[in-house]
């Protein structure tokens, strides 16, 4: 998701306050931001690079180990598996997501907010939950076992599970791509007798193909770096991400884990770099004189897209509904009477403690992340461009291209060093909150920056003329006007912290077990019902939090923008 955000050029320099107190405040803020990014992002990535190149005996790292790994048949098998499954998922998801997005944005389909909400359900659950649901549907004792030819555990299990997991990520990119259209182009095409298909080929597709490629890069990268689905339904079909997880957790070969992590970084950086290059070459689809285009009813077209949307939503509801039903079944498949016994989590050390830890992590990540991104947005958008601000922009841009598994490995290698004075943080919730913020920082920062850039410079001019201190101006003007966007950032970070696995899988301790990691551990222990229960609990919590925060955001928009409506 975050890797496909449309990048915008930084806003031109606004001003640098002449007041000494304001200058000191800005300098302290920039220094704080630089220190945090260095600690949370630069040092872990450098530590992972160092561990990968270190030839410590028994760790599986170093140049010789890298050469041996790259030339081994096992690595070629893992690479082929990862690329094959990722390509299959990309080819499956892109047409479905494009058709779904086109139906919502370019056709007259009823109840569009409802279908959009259903399509985004996979974002609210850890990636393992679709795999668990597929076991209950198509596994050896699944209710639809006869529908699937062959064995679920393997290539097709990974493809189906990752397709469900990646679908909303591609959908959001494509919905943004298809949201805007210039009515004048379609009017001109109609006046020249162009058919709807010709108008699509000559107008819609050229303006949206870059978004299609961006969503393809995003889906491909998510699949290559995800190990949640393969660990649940992969069976003997191993992937690179799963190999990195096994090397660190199962074999304690940190050097080999770092080497595989670097390999996972390569496809992410390549797809990200090509996507960025295409974005810079892409011309704006909407000019300043563009007129908004609204779809006109077309019964045949609208019914076709509604059918596609209904089929996709039915599949998603069926998958997650099966997971929730299985979490309530007493003993699958022999006793299907409903019971809450799986929600006791008796097989999990600490019981409900993992869920409580996730709530604490989510609230801490969202609160700290909002403060950080608001500070960064105000400092970088409202001050003159310098070498320091350009460096900070680059650092804030890096997390978009770094997979969570790679960042988590870097945290292991840096914070787990015995000589590191911050070693005491290892295994704690604050460290996992820092890692989660760093992992999802880019998208959150772009959202906050877009809100800050929209503020009229006349607000600042009035504050300067009245000699209002910078801090008071930010708290009384900038913060209230940016509150809706900050609530959206809070919601994004909270849900991400509740569902993330890859970035924190190496960082927890017995006392800081998280709900999403508990899903993985319960499934690995054979307690699939307990795993489905914990995954369903995460899904319901994320959905409830999203609804509450969305309502607060709409209320904040009405209050903060009331001054605009009052002029009419």
Describe this structure in words.
With 568 residues, this protein is mostly helical. The chain has one domain (2-6, 18-51, 115-285, 300-338, 349-562): MetI-like fold (Orthogonal Bundle), CATH 1.10.3720.10. Helix content is 70%, strand content 1%. It is built from 22 helices and 2 strands. The protein has helices at residues 20-53, 63-71, 73-106, 112-119, 128-138, 155-178, 183-191, 196-225, 228-233, 240-250, 254-281, 299-328, 353-381, 387-397, 404-415, 429-439, 441-453, 457-465, 470-499, 515-524, 528-560, 562-565, and strands spanning 329-331, 335-338. A two-stranded antiparallel sheet has the order 1-2. The radius of gyration is 25 Å and the shape is globular.
Task: Please describe the topology of this protein.
Elements: H1 20-53, H2 63-71, H3 73-106, H4 112-119, H5 128-138, H6 155-178, H7 183-191, H8 196-225, H9 228-233, H10 240-250, H11 254-281, H12 299-328, E1 329-331, E2 335-338, H13 353-381, H14 387-397, H15 404-415, H16 429-439, H17 441-453, H18 457-465, H19 470-499, H20 515-524, H21 528-560, H22 562-565
Helix pairs in contact: 1-11, 1-13, 1-14, 1-15, 3-6, 3-8, 3-12, 5-6, 5-12, 5-21, 6-8, 8-11, 10-11, 11-15, 12-21, 13-16, 13-17, 13-19, 13-20, 17-19, 19-21, 20-21
Q: Beta fraction of the residues?
A: under 5%
Give the tally of β-strands.
2
The order of strands across the largest sheet is 1-2
CATH top-level class: Mainly Alpha
H/E element sequence = HHHHHHHHHHHHEEHHHHHHHHHH
- Structural domain tally: 1
- Give the CATH topology: MetI-like fold
SSE class: mainly alpha
Distance between the first and last residues' Cα: 38 Å
Estimate the mean pLDDT confidence: 82
Major beta sheet, specifics? 2 strands, antiparallel
Sum up the overall morphology in one term: globular
| CATH architecture assignment | Orthogonal Bundle
Q: How many individual helices?
A: 22
State the helicity in percent bands: 55-70%
Spatial extent as radius of gyration: 25 Å
The CATH homologous superfamily is named MetI-like
Instruction: List low-pLDDT spans.
Output: 1-18, 284-288
């Amino acid at each position: 998701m975050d890797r496909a955000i449309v990048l915008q050029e930084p806003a031109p320099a606004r001003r640098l306050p002449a007041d000494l107190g304001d200058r000191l405040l800005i300098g302290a803020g920039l220094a704080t931001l630089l220190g945090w990014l260095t600690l949370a992002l630069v040092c872990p990535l450098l530590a992972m690079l160092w561990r990968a190149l270190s030839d410590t005996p028994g760790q599986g790292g170093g140049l010789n180990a890298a050469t041996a790994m790259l030339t081994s048949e096992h690595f070629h098998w893992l690479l082929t598996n990862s690329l094959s499954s990722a390509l299959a998922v990309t080819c499956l998801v892109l047409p479905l997501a494009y058709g779904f997005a086109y139906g919502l944005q370019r056709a007259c389909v009823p109840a569009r907010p409802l279908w959009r909400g259903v399509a985004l359900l996979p974002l609210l659950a850890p990636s393992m939950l679709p795999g668990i649901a597929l076991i209950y549907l198509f596994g050896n004792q699944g209710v639809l076992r006869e529908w699937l030819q062959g064995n679920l555990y393997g290539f097709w299990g990974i493809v189906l599970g990752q397709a469900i997991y990646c679908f909303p990520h591609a959908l959001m990119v494509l919905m943004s791509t298809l949201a805007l259209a210039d009515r004048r182009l379609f009017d001109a095409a109609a006046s020249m007798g162009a058919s709807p298909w010709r108008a699509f080929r000559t107008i819609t597709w050229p303006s949206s193909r870059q978004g299609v490629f961006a969503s393809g890069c995003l889906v491909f990268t998510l699949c290559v770096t995800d190990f949640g689905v393969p660990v649940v339904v992969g069976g003997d079909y191993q992937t690179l991400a799963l190999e990195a997880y096994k090397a660190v957790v199962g074999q304690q070969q940190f050097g080999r884990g770092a080497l595989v992590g670097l390999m996972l970084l390569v496809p992410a950086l390549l797809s990200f770099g090509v996507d960025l290059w295409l974005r810079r070459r892409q011309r704006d689809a909407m000019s300043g004189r563009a007129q908004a285009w609204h779809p006109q009813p077309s019964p045949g077209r609208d019914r076709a897209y509604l059918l596609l949307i209904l089929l996709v939503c039915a599949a998603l509801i069926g998958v997650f509904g099966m997971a929730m039903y299985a979490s309530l079944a007493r003993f699958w498949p022999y006793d299907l009477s409903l019971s809450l016994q799986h929600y006791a989590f008796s097989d999990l050390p600490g019981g409900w403690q993992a869920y409580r830890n996730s709530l604490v992590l989510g609230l801490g990540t969202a609160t700290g992340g909002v403060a950080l991104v608001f500070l960064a947005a105000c400092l970088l958008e409202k001050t003159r461009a310098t070498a320091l601000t350009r460096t900070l922009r680059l650092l804030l841009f890096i997390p978009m291209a770094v997979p969570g598994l790679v960042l988590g490995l870097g945290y292991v290698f840096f914070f787990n060093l015995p000589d590191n004075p911050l070693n005491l943080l290892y295994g704690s919730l604050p460290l996992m909150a820092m890692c989660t913020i760093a992992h999802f920082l880019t998208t959150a920062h772009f959202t906050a920056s877009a809100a800050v850039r929209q503020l009229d410079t006349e607000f600042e001019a009035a504050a300067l003329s009245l000699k209002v201190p910078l801090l008071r101006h930010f708290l009384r003007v900038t913060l209230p006007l940016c509150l809706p966007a900050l609530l959206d950032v809070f919601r994004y970070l909270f849900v991400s912290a509740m569902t993330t696995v890859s970035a924190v899988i190496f960082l927890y301790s017995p006392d800081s077990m998280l709900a999403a990691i508990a899903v993985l551990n319960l499934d690995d222990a054979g307690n699939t019902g307990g795993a489905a229960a914990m995954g369903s609990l995460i899904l319901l919590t994320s959905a409830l939090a999203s609804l509450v925060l969305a309502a607060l955001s709409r209320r904040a928009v009405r209050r903060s923008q009331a001054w605009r409506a009052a002029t009419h």
